[in-house]
Amino acid sequence: MGILGRAPTVEDTFKPVPQPRLEVPARTKRHRFSQQRRLPCDSNWGANPVKPLKGTPLPVEPTLLVKIKIKIEHSVFSINQFAVCPQPQMGSIMRKFKDRIHKRALMMRNGASVLKELIASSNSKYYPYRIFSTQEIKLATNNYDQKNVIAKDTSYNLYTMYKGFWQERLISVSQFHGHECRPRAYESCINNVTYATQMSHNNILKLIGCCLETPIPVLVFESAQYETLWDRILGAPQPHFEPLLLKRRLKIAMDIAHALAYLHFGFPRPIKFQDIMNLINEENDAKLFDFSLSISIPEGETHITDTVMGTWGYCSPEYMRTGVFNEKSDVFSFGVFLFELLTGWDVSDLVKDAHDLVCPFNEYLKNYFEDNRFTEIVDPIIVEDVLSIEKEQQLHASAQVTFECIKDSPADRPSMSTGIFMIY
Fold first, then answer.
1. Which residues are catalytic?
2. Helix 361-370 and helix 347-356: axis angle, to 10°?
């Protein structure tokens, strides 16, 4: 049948077929995932659907067809990508994905712990610290090369400190051992962050940042081209170091005394350092580090009770007996430190000898002071250096400070500020 009852002509063939006007239903408020877009030929499209004439293209939005085509092609492409992906490569992709998720989880947890402690201890101060990635830390330390080890925690094996190089700058990296399920290592790390961020003293190692992508955060400090007291005095002689004479040893003692006095008097709540861990450089500058066991004395309190922890020989008698301590416990530790500086002896060996004689450590030393035999236990390097009356007086004054600091009763010990004047 032609158009309007007459036979169709050639012109009719090329005439455009009139398009019916669709009645588009009124727009309703869109809710996410609550309604799907349907094609106009769907029986549910609109209130009065109009069927298009035969041969008439569907009145569908071109953009929708393009979107559908793109999505289908993208899906097919993605499926083909994984279909042709070799099994080892697929495993590598999954491992990288899991590693990324794990790092994000660690950053969230560690970041929350660090931030909580920073807020609690900041007193509304701003501390700019850098966040390092695990890759940056590995590059800086040459993947934690053992040749770069500066110091280790020999008491509890909590950490190892490495020297590193980052952005043309020397740094020190403290890696804590264990995992998040090892409370002592994790708490020690957070304790270091808590106290190190508050420090502003030339004789305390400065914290510059941390890495939160590891089970226990890795801490990054300023350059520490230093050696420990064991390396310089207590251990085997190092040929590349000059002998430490009396003047240099007393300078080291003064540096540590100033740092401890700063902790005791520079804060509203005195900080008890607990273990005198220090580093010494070639210029004999000493710096305290490792706040793993440090704790603040509560406001209005004169002492605190806690679990006995620390290096054998450095813990004060009252702390060893009852777990009670305050700033005077640090004074005792300083006396032991000064004793090691002057004698070159490892105090743990001396404490063992005193214990074998059923004699307290301070009584053991008292015998040498009263009998004027202290030079018998002084480092021979110092004895050879003491050739003048002035140096001999310095030696005896320093020995007296040692004896005063390690007295059995905390009340009989001087404060750290008094100890500084006694050394001069």
1. 275
2. 90
